[in-house]
From TrEMBL:
This is Coenzyme A biosynthesis bifunctional protein CoaBC. It catalyses: N-[(R)-4-phosphopantothenoyl]-L-cysteine + H(+) = (R)-4'-phosphopantetheine + CO2; (R)-4'-phosphopantothenate + L-cysteine + CTP = N-[(R)-4-phosphopantothenoyl]-L-cysteine + CMP + diphosphate + H(+). CTP binds at D278, K288, P306, D307, I308, L309, F326, K344, K348. PANTHER family: HOMO-OLIGOMERIC FLAVIN CONTAINING CYS DECARBOXYLASE FAMILY (PTHR14359), PHOSPHOPANTOTHENOYLCYSTEINE DECARBOXYLASE (PTHR14359:SF6). Its EC number is 4.1.1.36, 6.3.2.5. Residues 190-405 are annotated as: Phosphopantothenate--cysteine ligase. GO terms for molecular function: FMN binding; metal ion binding; phosphopantothenate--cysteine ligase activity; phosphopantothenoylcysteine decarboxylase activity.
């Protein structure tokens, strides 16, 4: 069955980016009805929306009145996405005003609603907008955090519309969970670490590992699509920032540790999907290490890095927070992959451990994964081979189950 998407566009300069979002929906087979506000049409005109969506476009309730569009469009939608959502549109939606087709549609829709705000930083931070966003979130809407960066003029700050490709991914995540899925992470603050740390030997060389960051980014996206406030601590990952997620960039295990410990103070859940290097060179050369004339190789002395997962689990900032670790294991003479996973769960002191069998080296850089989620309560959930997004949702399901306990 074709999925019916309503794309609401309100009057901000980022309206032009909604054209790309619209294309992504139509090219992936969605049926899209574009409902721009009159102000949006000042930025991008009706012919553009009509041509890209293949449908007539209206801003008002007075066109095709016999078809009752102000009720029909919202009632039949599988998801309503408003991108960009201006401060004015958020205010109207929060207060239930209905003076055009888009605001009427928002009142009649019973499907998930996603707002992607874009505005100047001052407007986003104004107490009126904060209150309106809080109201909408509390009613179950997903309000994506704007991205930081260059705004309309020369100034920079928080308020940019996230990358349309990432808004698309987030909405797809909402749709995949179905109309009945609740935004069960709404109001929750979660922290995800992703990628692999680098330990520098000198200004150009480092010890690193093969982590791509794909699993951590999938976890962050999945949490955002379930309504969470997400901080993604990213170590050396070259993937686009997920929509609505605050990304903190780090390089070394020491930096990752500091960022995770700081973010954990207010977190309801922490998922350590990053692969921190366990060792770092004892001394970092400030100049590039030169080859010796006699052909000898330098000896590299290493020292152990802090174990972040063990530290935040044993010395908890918030007793009720759910802490999740990952374990990439290969079975050996001392035990099977699962035996080693159980032992690691106990050693690290976390609540859940996602155990991957990496004997073949297959998971690195792959979009798929296969795992067993072990709980400190004895639970064991097998996740069959599937996408890293599917595994992410199982992990969040297990986290949410523990919130309820
Ligand atoms: N981890 C961490 N800090 C480290 C190393 C690992 O927080 N210095 C976290 C990883 O993010 C992951 C989990 O610990 O969630 C398991 O990582 P793994 O490398 O399998 O653990 P090790 O401690 O290296 O395991 P072992 O004791 O088998 O060496």
């Amino acid at each position: 069955m074709t999925t019916r998407v309503v794309l609401g566009v309100s009057g901000g300069i980022a309206a032009y980016k909604a054209c790309e979002l619209l294309r992504r929906f139509t090219e992936s087979g969605h049926d899209v009805t574009v409902v721009p506000t009159a102000s949006a049409l000042e930025f991008v005109g009706t012919p553009t929306w009509a041509a890209l969506s293949g449908k007539p476009v209206s801003s008002e309730v007075w066109h095709d009145v016999h078809a009752v569009p102000h009720v029909q469009i919202g009632q039949h939608a599988d998801v309503v996405v408003v991108a960009p959502a201006t401060a004015d549109l958020l205010a109207k939606a929060a207060h239930g005003l209905a003076d055009d087709l888009l605001t009427n549609t928002l009142l009649t829709a019973r499907c998930p609603v996603v707002f992607a705000p874009a505005m100047h930083t001052e407007m986003w931070e104004h107490p009126a907008t904060r209150a309106n966003v809080a109201t909408l979130r509390q009613r179950g809407a997903v309000v994506i955090e704007p991205a930081e960066g260059r705004l309309t003029g020369a100034d920079t700050g928080k308020g940019r519309l996230p990358d349309p490709a990432e808004i698309f991914e987030l909405v797809r995540g909402v749709l995949d969970r179905g109309a009945d899925a609740s935004l069960d992470l709404a109001g929750r603050t979660v922290v995800v670490s992703a990628g692999g740390t680098r330990e520098y030997l000198d200004p150009v060389r480092f010890l690193g590992n093969r982590s791509s960051g794909l699993q951590g980014y999938a976890l962050a996206r999945a949490a955002a699509s379930r309504g969470a406030h997400v901080t993604l601590i990213s170590a050396n990952v070259s993937l686009p920032d997920p929509a609505g997620v605050s990304v903190v960039r780090v390089e070394t295990t020491a930096q990752l540790r500091d960022a995770v410990v700081a973010a954990t103070a207010t977190a309801d859940a922490v998922v350590m999907a990053a692969a921190p290097a366990d060792f770092r060179p004892t001394a970092v050369s400030h100049a590039k290490i030169k080859k010796a004339a006699d052909g000898s190789a330098p000896a590299i002395e290493l020292e152990q890095n802090p174990d972040i997962l063990a530290e935040i689990s044993h010395d908890r900032a918030r007793a009720e927070a759910v802490i999740v670790g990952f374990a990439a294991e290969t079975g050996d003479a001392t035990g099977s992959v699962l035996d080693l996973g159980r032992a690691k769960l106990a050693r690290k002191g976390c609540d859940l451990l996602v155990v991957n069998d990496v004997s073949g080296g297959a998971v690195f850089g792959s979009s798929d994964n296969e795992a067993v989620v072990l709980g400190s309560d004895g639970a064991s959930v097998e996740v069959p081979h599937g996408s890293k997004t599917a595994l992410s949702h199982v992990i969040w399901d297990e986290v949410v189950r523990r919130f309820a306990d």
